[in-house]
Amino acid sequence: MLWVHLLACGVELPVPTLTGVAPDRGWNGEPTVIAIEGEAFYPQVQLDANQPGEADLDRGFVAWLDGESGRFPLSSVSAVDYEHLRAVVDPGLPLGTYDVLVESPGRSLARLDDAFIVSDTRADRLVLSTPSITPTVNDTAAIEVALVDPNGVPVQADLEVRMRLSVPDGLPNADVALGLEGQVTNYQTFELTGNLGADGFASVPVQVFAP
Predict the structure, then answer these.
(1) pTM of the complete model beyond 0.85
(2) Based on C-alpha coordinates, what's the Rg of the chain?
(3) Domain 125-208: which topology?
């Protein structure tokens, strides 16, 4: 008697592609949850001829950060849908810019160059804000400067900043009070230098003498 065993087979799937990572940076002092964006994040379906009507759905995507300091696996990688993966960048990684690599359940590999930055601070950018009401001549308005993380949350960190005030016709006719720590004002160019201070925030009063 001849016994034949038909092994499981899989459907060949398109190779995934990567288009973006959000957020594209993270602080190495804490875990960072990221969304990897792309196309063709399909699970691998395994069909078993010995069990008709049954199939195994494999969502085993694997992802890494790849840079000059080495290749580091991402944690908790999972498929959200065909265009998004969720993953966690673990704390403690070396600073630098990394490519993102994704391996599909079918063992296809996709790469996105320079896709994620590991930083030693939560700080991402400076945000300037002014009063919504335009001040009249001789009024004083405050220019607020805040250091925030990628989500817009204030970051408490001392930072040296440089500001330059201008109007469409050139230099303003104004007086600038002290708002930055150690502030130095150059009235020839209306450039200000100083520090935000430990709270990552400063309010610089400006008095306008002419419209």
Answers:
(1) no
(2) 27
(3) Immunoglobulin-like (2.60.40)
